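Fresh eyes needed here. Kindly weigh in on this sequence plus structure tokens:
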Amino acid sequence: MSNNDTHDTVTEDLELQEVLEETVFNERIVKHHKLGEIKLRHPTLAVQRKIDSAVRAKRKQLLTATDEITNDDGTTQRVPAFKSREALMKEYSSLGWWTPEQELKRNELNEQQLTLITTLEVLGFKTEEDLYDQLNSARQKLQEHFEDIDDKELSEELELAVLRITVPGEEPAGEDYQLVHKHATSSDVDNIIEELKDTHRLTSTYYQLIKITSELASLETEYMSLFSDSWQEQLQYYQRIAQVYYCSTIVSTGNPLWPNIEAVENDEDITLVRWVFTELTAFWQGITPEMREKMKRYNFMERLIERPESSEDSLDQPESNEDGSSQENKPTPSTEVMDTTEN
């Protein structure tokens, strides 16, 4: 086993131990640059009941809220303030604003993104800079290998071939590989070529991930601009706020970061709210700071990685007992945002 493999194994063991300790004690301490140390916790049964109660009250408020509109004949009427996601889907589909094909494309891009990330991990992707370093290193080795060729015309052909097979993002032509292989004077060149092919496979997959992520981000932005006013999206956002309020405290005082849920909802510092929820999500999903650092390899995805998930996604965490100890394999009760109206 190499030193790198040993280091990776030790690191993984330490990360696992850290997750286990946090699970046992049901807490993680994180540091905010202004507020200092913040304690994050899984919701206990009592806390979960408070969250559920707050969300149920908000749901009733959203479903009963109305707006007054003026008709063409000058009369006024009260209409629901928030439509359901399904009602908006039908409305936007008829207008051509959001079609079933776009919804299918959004789901497909999410699946493709996950597949590409998994492929990169299997292939041993480190960083984008590492890919460029590998290509530059291969180019230098090949250039040094052929620098003593006396035939000027052949030397120029080989130089161009070496450049072409070490350009990032370009699929090298087989003829260039064959030319380099044909005039190689040692088996070292064969090894370099095989490593180059692996690097190009990684690079191609990485660039495809960038493309897919860009397309997905565009669709997600469009989706949120259209459906953020549905009562389900509003309720999901409120649930996140309730989780932020009840599951985070300031270590030095033991008090919540805000006096009440309404203060969280009305706080103009949305960056702080998003930061706390991102840290909570990482804690609930067992993502350690070390794992977060690894995820930064996909630096162009940081905004998407930090985007809070909806309550329909994988936010269920293990429940905790009244004393804070963890219960294994039992999902935390959560408010299920269901469409019961067709407003």
Summary: The longest strand covers residues 326-331. Residues 188-227 form the longest helix (40 residues). The chain is about 60% helix and 10% strand. Strands lie at 28-32, 36-40, 66-70, 76-80, 248-250, 318-320, 326-331.
